[in-house]
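Example 240.
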Amino acid sequence: MKIIRTKNSDEMSRKAANIFFSKLISKPSAVLGLATGGTVVGLYKNLIESCKNGDLDFSEVKTVNLDEYVGIGSENGQSYRYYMDNNLFNQVNIKRENTYLPNGLAGDISAECARYNELIESLGGIDIQLLGLGLNGHIGFNEPADAFASVVHAVDLDESTIEANARFFADKNDVPKKAITMGIQNIMRAKKIVLCVSGKQKSKILNEVLFGDITPRVPGSVLQLHRNVIVVADEDALEG
Ligand code: F6R
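Predicted structure in complex with fructose -6-phosphate:
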């Protein structure tokens, strides 16, 4: 793992955006694996700015997101589709039909997981996968468990995840209890992985992810086994 240490979250966002920037310059038709959440908003702002300046072109880019809540749709302001439209897609020249997320309103959730898994395969591999880190060590919505879940699957969100994500909802009871997420194998197959982490509250878990045992109890620890991971983290996250 390569660790890029930054002074603060702004610098983390710029440095992580630069990794995506250089990939898109060398491969304009790259497949990007994307994440949602608070940590990566600044990175998307940097990409939008570069696109508006004419330095980046998203016309051939394809994106595939890590996860989506079950039970809410694209019109719902808390859905990850809505987040992606707002924080990136509507502000760059990407084709909407090239942006993929699981459908949280699918009638048959296990069929939707299989469909999304096949879709990821059909894209021919993710060139760069962006990840944030949950306070409990989750990546995507791969929550601490007894075993690593490999492919796209439905998951019951951890109480700690529901609590952490309640800040985005009017009421904690509004946070969906289930999600569809890429599995660890989908993530580990990406050619390159960029993990962004910011803030003192993540320092303990980041330390376990980087230097602790590799265990499904700390899902992010599996990244120690990937050949091409760049961790972009600020001083607060690295030192606590
Ligand atoms: C979001 C996702 C999650 C978040 C993680 C960190 O698509 O898959 O793993 O990356 O929960 O969220 P923030 O950045 O809000 O702390």
